[in-house]
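Weekly structure sync, notes
Attendees: PL, DS, HV (note-taker this week)

Item 1: Glycine betaine/L-proline ABC transporter ATP-binding protein
DS walked through the input record. Source organism listed as Streptomyces lateritius. Sequence as pasted into the shared doc:
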Amino acid sequence: MSRLQADHLYKVFGRRPDEAVKKLADGADRDELRADGTTAAVIDASFVVEPGQIFVVMGLSGSGKSTLLRMLNGLLEPTAGRVLFDGKDLTALSHRDLRTVRSTKISMVFQHFALFPHRSVLENAAYGLEVQGVPRAEREARAAEALDLCGLAGWEKSWPDELSGGMQQRVGLARALATDADLLLMDESFSALDPLIRRDMQDQLLELQKRLKKTIVFITHDLNEAMRLGDRIAVMRDGRIVQLGTAEDILIRPANDYVASFIQDVDRSRVLTAASVMTTPEHPAPDSCGCETVGPDTLVADLCAVSARVPHPVAVKDADGAVLGVVPQSRLIGFIGDEQRPPVACATGTEVISHA
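Item 1 (cont.): predicted structure, written out as tokens:
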């Protein structure tokens, strides 16, 4: 069973929202509705998030991504459609039951930290548990454990204004983790941070995800961040999801010109893997040459370094040593966006590129 499912979600603000949904379903765009004083924030959004997956929703300001996120935990009621959490329809729950789900099953990490300045770091991290009515000793122990996971051991008695921006954001993340919620919703949680701190937080999140296997919906307007974090990515424009897929799907097969223009400045070498650029070898790969090989999940950035040291196409092998394909340097250069250089034949007849 999927952890989270959005089923044809619409959110319309303004007059006669139900009528607006019908018009949108019939093909109207939201510019047509603005003349009637109606704003369509989210239009027919559907997707599935599996347990343990980081699902990234990305788009420019005004694309509808934050509105979509707030429908996922019931902070906003959909105009039409359903949100299923562990098979349960959240849109059909009473307000009381929905508050229970939000306090115990779904946690949110905000963009602007949302820390209480009059509470210590430990008290901030334990706040969600306090709302649940967890006894003080237990909630402080769990909060301390979450702070340790986030690299903040020893800062429990500090005040928020004594911490850097990145450290404050870690407190917000620890607060979400302390509740042991099944689903984390992260609304542009790193966008207020400096670039180096932001990357450090991305590293922290990926490391935590390896250990905790949480289900995460992450909102961002930064495509490089989306590509780095997301197991699957939904690209939004004008309230609609215009493409849904893995980072490699979006880079290699953009759905339209809008997505293609969006991805043109992405560092492909940090997203694409050997599996996505390899090809079938024209000649059987020699087993006795002793040259370096790579696995199918090796990033192109790392593959480039190997290719520079190997005098023929790099073999891509699985865990058992079976050759899955090869990556000629000409193909490698083409995928990272440079002009291809003509191939040079070596003494064995295998296609290679001069390393001059």
